[in-house]
Amino acid sequence: MDIVNEILEREQQEQAKYKPITVEKLLEVQNDLGLLLCTDVNDLEEEKLKSDCDDYLLNLTRDNVQLLLNDLWQQPTETVEESVLAQLPAPNHKLPRERKIPEPKPLTKWQKFAQEKGIKKQPRMKKVYDQEQEKWVPTYGYKRAAAEKDRDWVLEVPGNADPMEDQFQKKQELRKERVAKNEIQRMRNIARAQKVKIPRIGIPSSDAASSKELLTAASVAKASTASVGKFQGKLAKDKQARGLGVKELIPGVKRKPSHLEPEKAQNLNAVESVLNKRPKLDIEKAISLQKRDDREKREGEEAEATPRKSKKGKSKFKSKGMKKPKGGKGQRNPNKRTLGRKRR
Question: What does the angle CA 142 – CA 147 – CA 152 come to, to the nearest 5 degrees?
Fold first, then answer.
């Protein structure tokens, strides 16, 4: 009997850990299963909220979630891949949005053309088999350029092309042109999506152009000559578009500020006067300076060759012009160290 009582007590303790699925509320909560939203309209107990706020809110949340799950499992269910799913009804509450609903993205030129012709986008394979290299190569992305380089290691020169023309450079330039063309198309699509007017200077558009655009196009067309419209004749009531000068008509030409010209000329004159100033060359003075340097150098060498005076104060040589005595006939230099035994 003791063992049975212990088992029963243990089960009661384990069941005491789990709260019941039935929850009693003074006012019934409002559940919106479409949004999994539970709205509790009951008042909060201020004493419990002040004394033990965390445990009180935790228990309150647990009870509301239990009520929401009780209503959820009363809905019709279905089994999908060994999982039981409940079919949620349509939501009742309308949640406010922070921003407006995004508008559908406008179609590009190619998307419109494909939609009209019934062209469907086919999935592009990541790798294709190359018959020449006998291996799988990527069609885009990583290592595609290396695969093209290995495949096109030699290029055939067309019959109507210059034999000295670099076909690799030509292929690279065509690739850059295609990239630039795609970039222009992408920018045009962005401008069209944002409803921005694309300027068409010098190009007649199908839409009705304004008078300013027509005047700008006429001015650019007139300046599209070798003389930039200098010798172009003027028509009656001909006007020049405002804001168009040499800088706008000829690309690469910079407008020169007029107020900086005097200062620039003054600075150039100062620099030229400094650079063009040549010193006067005095040959006689240069020769005398050279002679003096040679004489000082020679006297310094002779002073180094002259030995020091002995203890008696007498010099080894009587005059500067005497020759150096041969070995064994002169006095030994006491300051010079010699190896071996001293001679007496």
Answer: 145
Q: Give the helix ranges, DSSP H, for 18-52.
A: 46-51
Give the C-alpha separation, 141 to 40, whole Å. Answer: 55
Residue 214, amino acid: L
DSSP class per residue in 174-235? HHHHHHHHHHHHHHHHHHHHTTPPPP-TTS--SSPPPHHHHHHHHHHHHT-STTTTTTPPPP
**If we measure between CA atoms, which residue out of 306, 313, 310, 305 comes closest to residue 331?**
310
Distance CA 144, CA 148 (A): 6
Helices assigned H by DSSP within the chain: 2-17, 46-51, 53-72, 109-117, 144-151, 167-193, 211-222, 246-249, 261-275, 283-305
How buried is residue 127: exposed, middle or buried, by Cβ count under 10 Å (0-12/13-18/19+)?
A: middle
Query: What are the backbone angles phi and psi of residue 243, rounded to the nearest 5°?
Result: 80, 5
Model-wide pTM > 0.70: no
SS3 (DSSP) at 246: helix
Q: The tokens of 11 are what?
A: 């089960």
Residue that has been written with the tokens 């088999």 in this structure: 129
Structure tokens of 39? 């709205």
Residue 308 CA to residue 335 CA, distance in Å, equals: 9
- Cα 208 to chain centroid, rounded: 40
Q: Which two structure tokens, joined as six digits, stand for 5?
A: 């009582």
Are the C-beta atoms of 76 and 88 separated by less than 8 Å? Answer: no
8-state DSSP, 282: -
From first to last of its 344 residues, the chain has per-residue pLDDT tens of 577 777 777 777 777 777 778 888 888 898 999 888 999 989 988 888 889 899 999 989 999 999 999 998 889 988 888 888 888 999 888 888 888 888 888 888 888 999 999 998 888 888 888 888 888 988 888 888 888 888 888 888 888 888 888 888 888 899 899 989 888 888 888 888 877 776 665 444 555 667 777 777 777 777 777 777 777 777 666 666 665 655 555 554 555 556 667 888 888 888 887 777 666 667 788 888 888 888 888 888 887 776 655 545 554 444 455 555 555 555 666 666 666 565 65
